[in-house]
Write a structure and sequence with these properties.
The complex is a heterodimer of chains A (about 270) and B (about 230). With about 270 residues, chain A is α/β, with parallel strands linked by helices. Chain A is built from 12 helices and 8 strands. In chain A, a hairpin with a 6-residue loop joins β3 and β4. Chain B is an alpha/beta fold. Chain B is elongated, with a radius of gyration of 22 Å. The chains are: A alpha/beta (about 270), B alpha/beta (about 230). At the A-B interface, loops of A face loops of B.
């Protein structure tokens, strides 16, 4: 068995790399694949919390590359799905604690055991980002329809093209249909025109993400969540299935809501 | 204040709130004093009312008194001498031996036995023997001690008491709410939910210790009676 390494990156921070990593890893595991998510944001770890596994960390990725423990000891088994594992980042160190070759070696070792290895890259284009890129078979770039995020994504794509990483795809996160309609936000097509790489998913703005993150339950576990639905589709596309893109439309307000919001604006 | 001057023989380093450390790297007293003279011309006014430590090496500790008297003439009083070991040191000033450290610290970690202040995410401290933290230990920080750990505040980070295998050690905190507790060779995990989201009502001091192969937590008053 030789697994596939997916790296999730963005350039800009706060656009949803870790949320995407958590949802995608869970989605792949729910689809029956053996998946491991590795948090490479050393010093500012968050993936463990989004997956709700923060209380279980004993060994982290720095311990693994420094050979303090075996890889098996650092694999944290998910509490909901049997075939999902996490390797957490160290919080007491920084990005210079691991080298690209060590990450590559770790990824290659995990390829033997897992179908999918998902690397959560830190923001920025420095060492940590490079560590996450070296082993990647496929890179998923996450952006939001903000000009700053798109510009940073463009920079990242440029770097990856210069290093001949050809397998790139794009997730546009936090699209707000109301703002797009008003013309205050870039639309899906605007973003695609700038970045011109294949689109693998569009995720609508979801007010519940904050609470899902706080309680450690990614939105893919919630049936009624619009972002969860979008992540389910992305998982299917990663698995090579052809799924139509969901239409992101403005939710129509009821009469009462209209009246209430009218008074609120006064 | 950070004040740092580097020359070949003598180094003066600002040690944040503690004051200054004068470190001597030469075995030639004449050159050392000459260089110290020129350095102090610039910096002595900053140093007069601070805590001064003098760092010496094995090859220059025999002329410690020369340096100390030289500084005294300049109204700078050395408070302590830092050496690898005290043998051969002839001075009646308190000394700190640096080879008496057993735990190997990661970069940026402090070794203390009492720590005043708050530990934030990503910070860690290690202590030989007991560790007293006067302040809060925030979530995602780590504290290690070969002996017992006492936190006079909130403990939301990960404590490891009895580091190295002492299963008799205890962990005490005014608000004991860590994601994990490690004592000696034992480890336990708190119930699900992020520690920051738990509603802490009726907080009382608690003690964690190993009983019959499991880590148990009981109220401080109850523990005193047992």
């Amino acid at each position: 068995m030789s697994g596939k390494v997916l790296t999730i990156t963005s350039g800009k921070g706060g656009v949803g790399k870790s949320t995407t990593t958590a949802n995608l890893a869970l989605g792949l595991a729910l689809a029956g694949k053996k998946a491991v998510a590795i948090d490479l944001d050393i010093g500012l770890r968050n993936l463990d919390m989004i997956l709700g596994l923060e209380n279980r960390i004993v060994y982290d990725v720095v311990n693994v590359v420094e050979k303090v423990c075996k890889v098996k000891q650092a694999l944290i088994k998910d509490k909901r799905v049997d075939n999902l594992f996490l390797i957490a980042a160290a919080q007491t160190r920084d990005k210079s604690a691991v080298k690209s070759e060590q990450v590559l070696e770790l990824a290659n070792e995990l390829r033997k055991e897992f179908d999918y290895i998902i690397l959560d890259s830190p923001a920025g284009i420095e060492g940590g980002f490079r560590n996450a890129m070296l082993p990647a078979d496929e890179v998923i770039i996450v952006t939001t329809p903000e000009i700053s995020a798109v510009r940073d994504a463009d920079r990242v794509i440029g770097i990856l093209e210069a290093h001949e990483k050809k397998d790139m795809s794009l997730i546009i996160n936090r699209i707000n249909p109301t703002l797009v309609k008003k013309g205050d936000m870039m639309s899906k097509n605007d973003v695609l025109q700038v970045l011109s790489i294949p689109l693998i998913g569009v995720v609508p703005e979801d007010g519940n993400i904050v609470s899902y993150t706080n309680i450690g339950e990614p939105s893919i576990l919630h049936q009624d969540s619009p972002s969860g639905k979008a992540y389910k589709n992305i998982t299917q596309r990663v698995l090579g299935k052809d799924v139509p893109f969901m239409e992101i439309i403005e939710r129509k307000k009821g009469i009462m809501e209209t009246i209430i919001s009218f008074f609120k604006e006064q | 204040m950070v004040f740092n001057q580097i020359m070949s023989q003598v180094e003066i380093k600002g040690k944040n709130f503690l004051g200054f450390e004068i470190s001597i790297n030469s075995d030639d007293p004449k050159r050392t004093l000459a260089e110290l003279e020129s350095l102090l011309a610039v910096s002595s006014k900053y140093m007069k009312n601070s805590i001064i430590t003098l760092k010496l090496d094995d090859f220059n500790k025999e002329y410690a008194n020369k340096v100390i008297n030289f500084l005294k003439d300049k109204d700078i009083y050395v408070n302590a001498i830092v050496v690898k070991n005290k043998n051969g040191l002839d001075a009646d000033i308190p000394f700190i031996e640096t080879n008496k450290t057993h735990l190997i610290n990661e970069e940026g970690e402090k070794e203390v036995s009492t720590f005043k202040g708050n530990l934030r995410s990503g910070q860690s401290i290690k202590a030989n023997g007991d560790l007293v933290v006067v302040g809060n230990v925030n979530s995602n920080s780590y504290i290690y001690a070969t002996g017992n750990i006492f936190v006079l505040g909130k403990l939301y980070g990960v404590p490891h008491a009895g580091y190295g295998g002492n299963n008799e050690a205890i962990v005490f905190a005014f608000d004991l709410n860590p994601p994990q507790i490690r004592i000696g060779d034992y480890i336990t995990r708190s119930p699900e939910k992020n520690v920051l989201l738990k509603k802490r009502i009726d907080v009382a001091p608690e003690v964690a210790f190993v009983d019959d192969g499991v880590i148990v937590i009981i109220g401080y008053n109850e523990w005193l009676k047992s």
